[in-house]
Amino acid sequence: MFSDMISSANRCFRDSIRVGGTCVLIFFIPLGVCAQYKYGLKPTGYPAYLESVKQHPEKELVDLEHYIPGLVLDIRYATTNNFTGERIYDHAKAYARRPVADALKEVQAELKKDGLGIKIFDAYRPYKATVKFYEVYRDTTYVASPYKGSRHNRGCALDLTLIELKTGAELKMPTGYDSFTKQAWPTTSVADPVVRKNRQRLIEVMEKHGFRVNSSEWWHFDFNGWKNFEVLDIDFDLLNRL
Ligand SMILES: [Zn+2]
């Protein structure tokens, strides 16, 4: 198969999608594959990850869309609608470690009582994407340092907002996703009482179930046990096969 030949040589550069029954290959700008470990951090790869899950089942990266029915995904890095202007992920998927997924399930159940739901912008992120973001933006107030990696790389961070279950409409928040401004800080005062209440609701429900809001992004939440999970560099392509 032609696609198999391409795959072995260009695994991380391509995605294949079906359009009208035809397999179309899309080539991506490389994420710095050869140079991605130049910051001194050596993330866990696929074989070591599989081994770690055997020893510690809670380390499994869970497919959130299947694990939490009703969750809405808008994975911006699988589109060009993100701050890099490039499609970074080859699949619009959201994964998180099992205890993170369990906590999110509790959040969803609580919000449902009030007719609210969750929209996920990003969850697990391969380390090579963090390197790419840093090399595009450099300001570690808003993008993670590749020397330490992101909590997204550990499968322990979620970017999300609230939606109305009936309409699917996002609740009004102080800024859009990935707005790298002071307005996005959860401590910045908000004049509009509705926006203030929405942000407070999101932060309160997440913190009640074991997350902590990021100090410069109202949409980013770290799971409190993140230190127990390693930085990973596994492409979505491999996770999808499990
Ligand atoms: Zn984030």
Keywords, please?
alpha+beta, five-stranded mixed β-sheet, two-stranded antiparallel sheet, globular, disordered N terminus, binds zinc ion
Q: Would you kindly provide a written description of the structure presented here, covering whatever features stand out?
A:
There is one protein chain. The protein has 242 residues and is an alpha+beta fold. Helices cover 29% and strands 19% of the residues. It has seven helices and nine strands; from the N terminus they run αββαβαββαβαβαββα. It has helices at 2-10, 46-55, 64-67, 98-112, 127-137, 193-208, 236-240; strands at residues 14-19, 22-27, 61-63, 72-73, 95-97, 116-122, 157-164, 211-214, 217-223. The strands form three sheets. It has a five-stranded mixed β-sheet with strand order 4-6-7-9-8, with helices on one face. Strands 1-2 form a two-stranded antiparallel sheet. β8 (211-214) and β9 form a beta hairpin. It is globular and about 50 Å long. The two termini are 22 Å apart. Mean pLDDT is 87; it is low at 1-34. Bound molecules: zinc ion. The site of zinc ion has 5 residues, from β7.
Topology of helices and strands:
Layout: H1 2-10, E1 14-19, E2 22-27, H2 46-55, E3 61-63, H3 64-67, E4 72-73, E5 95-97, H4 98-112, E6 116-122, H5 127-137, E7 157-164, H6 193-208, E8 211-214, E9 217-223, H7 236-240
Parallel strand pairs: 4-6
Antiparallel strand pairs: 1-2, 3-5, 6-7, 7-9, 8-9
Zinc ion is lined by residues 122, 152, 157, 159, 220.
